[in-house]
Amino acid sequence: MFTQDRLEYQPIPLPHRHHMSDEEMVTAAHDFYSFMQRRHTVRDYSSREVPREIIERCILAAGTAPSGANHQPWHFVAISNPEHKHRIRLAAEEEEKGFYEGGASEEWLRALEPVGTNQEKPHLDIAPWLIVIFAQRYGQFADGQKFKNYYVPESVGIATGFLIAALHHAGLASLTHTPNPMKFLNGLCDRPDSEKPVMILAVSRGAAPSFDLSHEEFQRMGQRVLDSMWEAVRRGQEDPILPSARGHEIRELLDAPLPREGIAVDEVIESWVDTLLPLCRHNGHPRFFGYVVTSPDPVGIFADAMASAMNQGLTAWRSAPGATEVERVVLRWLDELVGFSGEGSGILTSGGSSANFHALALAVRKADVSAPRHRQAIYMSTEAHVSMKKAGRVLGVPDEQIRLVPVDASRRMRTELLLAWLHQDREAGLVPVAVCASAGGANTGAIDPLEQIADVCEAQDVWLHIDGAYGAPAAATTKYAWMRDSFARADSLSLDPHKWLFAPVDVGCLLLRDETLSRALFGWESEYTAITQTDPIERFAFFDHGLEMTRRFRGLKVWSILKARGADAIVETIRRDIELREALDDRIAREPSLEHLGSELSISCFRFRPSSDETEGEVDELNRHILETIVQEGSAYMSPTYLEGRYALRACIVNFRTSFEDNDFLLDEVLSIGGAG
């Protein structure tokens, strides 16, 4: 302690500083800002010990702060003793209780609500160090005589800032805690009345990242998410269907390096709406006629979110008991809806492509006992979905033995040619494995002659798979109820709830006649998948019937939609979509400049043809121009196809929002652009 008669002043020369250019200083300023920007006040701590030397050095760094008259009017009390920390915690919580139970104004409490603080202060126990900061109102000479300190709050504030920066630089985290009032800290820290406690600084390494939220935080985030989801639904019906940004622009907007440091979740949620949503194609728009991708039922949207919250891995009953039973119920319901009558045997898949693959895998495997792959052949029409052609190739059937049977004028498989090809291949020593028929082709919605094909397959003892990914739900309507008899004769049937049952993507379905076949192919026991349950219900495992192991709870959205809407309302909506297609065809037939090229179910294909003077190439080019213009304008959306070598406009209606007025809008646009072209 210095004395009044020994006051000395000895200036210390400034240390040598490297001269920095303006550019270097700018860089240094940016770098320091970037570093300090990563400093956060934390409330979750690690109890892992922090060496005393680190704390001491950081306090020494705080002591380099400028102060009034260089009196350094501060005192830092560093505490690591658990009992001492606990006493501070108890006293602090007692003061905080009074604060939160009436001591604070309503305005103050409202300001604290987003932070989520209360009187509970467990971090005072958990943090390995508490640094209590005191401001010295006055100092004393060795003889007890007092001397005044100057700019005390300012000086202590600067020093505290230095301390926090030093702790951060050392890789530590901190929380500034200011119980109100704080007089108890003088007694607990053995400090004189001349010193005023300023704050408690809880210091630790910081806890391991935690993704948990309190109930209040979860609700707040949930509300933000709900608002964003509503924006997606609302703008998906009102905004241009296709984004105006081109590929390179979208890539530039979204491309970024891997984030090393996270940002506020609110910012992430905002980016869904502000950044990502304008770059999406709005499939739920009432004038989206592009593909057989439905607009999702809001019930399905929420069910999909709930499935994520449940986080059930649909491997086996033991992994997801309730979810497994829900999916088995869904399989039975879908079976009943379309009339397959396999009593719900099958699996839910990612979509129709996966369902088709699984079906052909079963057929090929069944044939393996009598024929190697190079002698196998599968049959489908030239209109068959590409997924079945790819499945055949992946399964090892030679490309030249994936037989594409010609179609008739209605784009339906010619059964007589199918039968001839089967006979020809058998005579050549090949083994017919499967016939893939379509209940709703991708181009025009064409339905193959299912009954005739079923007759052929039964007579030839060939697996019959029906691809009903798009069209199978129409079998629940009166108009297409005739398909049910054919479905009942098939070995397997695929359908897609995300195509025409108003479920969000992704969910497909494969219905099977004989579940033991899938168990024979996909069942493969290992030490870690062995099933020990003896109850037949509890022994069930979806991984024994499909390629996937862990997968999401796809069935919840289908289950929820069917429960909430009821089969009758869903069937009526499908019927109305078919009626909308028929109305579209009627209008096309009445327009001299429009040429109908084919339709079935809820797909209509047509083109603009102003006269008979144009060449086919000119007509193709004109219709390409029409389509591109409509898509670019964003007011409607169609997709193209080729029918008999002719460029066609393709309108698909699988949307519960589409109206007769939307039909007219689409054709009016075609006529207007075509006339102008």
Q: Notable features of this structure?
A:
677 residues; alpha+beta; NADH Oxidase; Aspartate Aminotransferase, domain 2; 17 strands; 14% strand
Strand order of the largest sheet: 7-13-12-11-10-8-9
The CATH superfamily title of the largest domain: Type I PLP-dependent aspartate aminotransferase-like (Major domain)
The CA-CA distance between the termini, in Å, is 96 Å
Low-confidence stretches: none
Structure explained in plain terms:
There is one protein chain. This protein is of the alpha+beta class. The protein folds into four domains: 38-204, NADH Oxidase (3-Layer(aba) Sandwich), CATH 3.40.109; 215-282; 313-524 and 533-558, Aspartate Aminotransferase, domain 2; 570-676, Aspartate Aminotransferase, domain 1 (Alpha-Beta Complex). The protein has 23 helices and 17 strands. Strands 7-13-12-11-10-8-9 form a seven-stranded mixed sheet, with helices on both faces. α2 (52-62) packs across α6 (152-169), α8 packs parallel to α10 and α15 (415-427) runs parallel beside α16. The radius of gyration is 37 Å and the shape is elongated. The termini are far apart. The model has no long low-confidence stretch (mean pLDDT 89).
Entry summary:
With 677 residues, the chain is α+β, with helices and mostly antiparallel strands. Helices cover 43% and strands 14% of the residues.
